[in-house]
Amino acid sequence: MNPNHVITIDQEVKFMNTQMKKPPKLLHKSAGYDYCCIFRVPQSLFEINREAYQPQIVSIGPYHHGNKHLEMIEEHKWRYLDDLIQRTGNSIGYFMKMIVSMQDEIRQSYSESIDHFSANDLAKMMVLDGFFLIELFRKVGKLVETKDDPIFRMVWVSPFLMRDLLKIENQIPFFVLQMLFDESKDGSKPDDRTLSTLILEFFNYTVDRKKEILNEHKNTKGKHLLDFFRKSFINPKEQNPVPTFDISKNSYLKLIPPANKLKIVGVTFKASHEPDSFLDIEFRNGVLSIPQINMDDFYSSFFLNCIAFELCYFHCSKHITTYVVFMGCLMNTSTDVGVLSEDKIIENYFGTDKELAKFFKSVGKDVAFNIKDNYLTGLFVEVNEYCENGWHVHLAGFKHTYFESPWAAVSAFAAFLLLCFAGLQTFYTVYQYYKAKKE
């Protein structure tokens, strides 16, 4: 900049007036509305685990469109589209025109401006990506033959693919998927399965769930694939119980101690092996029942992206965030992870016990968690109240101190015998004294 050039007040005012008229591009002013649901990951979360949010083999939607390292699957999208067009007989133009007519609604679904895509470019992307997903679901659901499809034959592809499809930045609106699915049904092969059912069957190869759950969510809708799959773990009939206490004055409404400390004060852990959802946690009579979960790369990626979505999207429940905070409370150290592993609550395929504890601690550190308003509020109160009151706390502490190991038990028993002998000796001494006195 020329030091001799002086910007006048009028020039500054003109610049400021121009800036005020420019709409935000990195975060739309409408990003807080219900219809805006596809976001960029906040930087604070992105720094924790970059790979968890970045697609590894496939791009869905505009945010990662055209990335060089995603070209392999991008080429197969065209093959899938050709198969569908040949099978249904509808032209590409038929679907393109439908998407163009929906472009305003599609653009409003993204928190970041995608105006650099023309109407036709946006429609081409939605058709290509949308039908790629739908054909994947149909192939797994046996509605379409897979033959020797390399995407299914190469076993390394599937794990990456399933994780990529549930990443917050890698989404297209669910209403686009639903429209493309409805308009591309094969009338010669009638099938009563919904798009939702096919999606759940697809992911059931990674997350094995009861068939009743699939039926229960056959008409569930989401804002996009990630939101739909997140919702499938939440009981549609669930109503958060109204607390029977004054939340603002309840001293027990705080985070709970880690698993090892809970065990010391008498809490028993029990694994639920056939729950409807990993969210179904209960506490009764000192027993904390937690559904068994296989912690692996899929679940860690899914949790991170759900938390990012729940942080960004105001109009949804915070069930996954609450669950991760709860598990983070229990697993403060590797010792705590060991406690849950011994009780078959955690099957650790993520890494070492120390790495798993670090994962939950780092994830829960920067999340916005409202302890007064979540589906486990009552449980936090009940656990803390149990830990601080009652005879069982003292009994459990005594058992932990004196009977935690065989040597401690032997020492305690020896001390007890010595105490008994000392008591007997005192008794006989006093007895002999009074007996002699009477004589």
Furnish the topology, listing elements before pairings.
Blueprint: H1 9-21, H2 43-46, H3 71-88, H4 92-101, H5 103-108, H6 119-140, H7 150-153, H8 157-164, H9 174-183, H10 195-203, H11 211-216, H12 225-231, H13 259-264, E1 268-272, E2 282-284, E3 287-291, E4 293-295, H14 297-312, H15 319-330, H16 334-342, E5 346-348, H17 353-365, H18 377-388, H19 391-403, H20 406-438
Parallel strand pairs: 1-3, 4-5
Antiparallel strand pairs: 2-3
Short descriptors:
3 domains, about 55% helix, mainly alpha, two-stranded parallel sheet, about 5% strand, about 450 residues
Uncertain stretches: 394-403
Largest sheet: 3 strands, mixed
State the separation between the terminal residues, measured CA to CA. Answer: 118 Å
Please give the share of residues in helix: 40-55%
SSE string: HHHHHHHHHHHHHEEEEHHHEHHHH
Number of strands: 5
In which order are the strands of the major sheet placed?
A: 1-3-2
Approximately what portion of the residues adopt beta-strand conformation?
Answer: under 5%
Instruction: Give the overall pLDDT as a whole number.
Output: 86
Instruction: Give the helix tally.
Output: 20
Overall morphology: elongated
The secondary structure category is: mainly alpha
Number of domains: 3
Rounded Rg: 30 Å
At a glance:
This protein has 439 residues and is mainly α.
Question: Your description of this structure?
Answer:
- With 439 residues, this protein is mainly α.
- The chain has 3 domains: 43-231, no CATH class; 247-392, no CATH class; 405-438.
- 53% of the residues lie in helices and 4% in strands.
- It contains 20 helices and 5 strands.
- The protein has helices at 9-21, 43-46, 71-88, 92-101, 103-108, 119-140, 150-153, 157-164, 174-183, 195-203, 211-216, 225-231, 259-264, 297-312, 319-330, 334-342, 353-365, 377-388, 391-403, 406-438, and strands spanning 268-272, 282-284, 287-291, 293-295, 346-348.
- The chain has a 3-stranded mixed sheet with strand order 1-3-2, with helices on one face. The chain has a two-stranded parallel ribbon with strand order 4-5.
- Helix 6 crosses helix 9 (174-183).
- The longest helix has 33 residues, at 406-438.
- The chain starts with 8 loop residues before the first helix and ends with a helix.
- The relative contact order is 0.09.
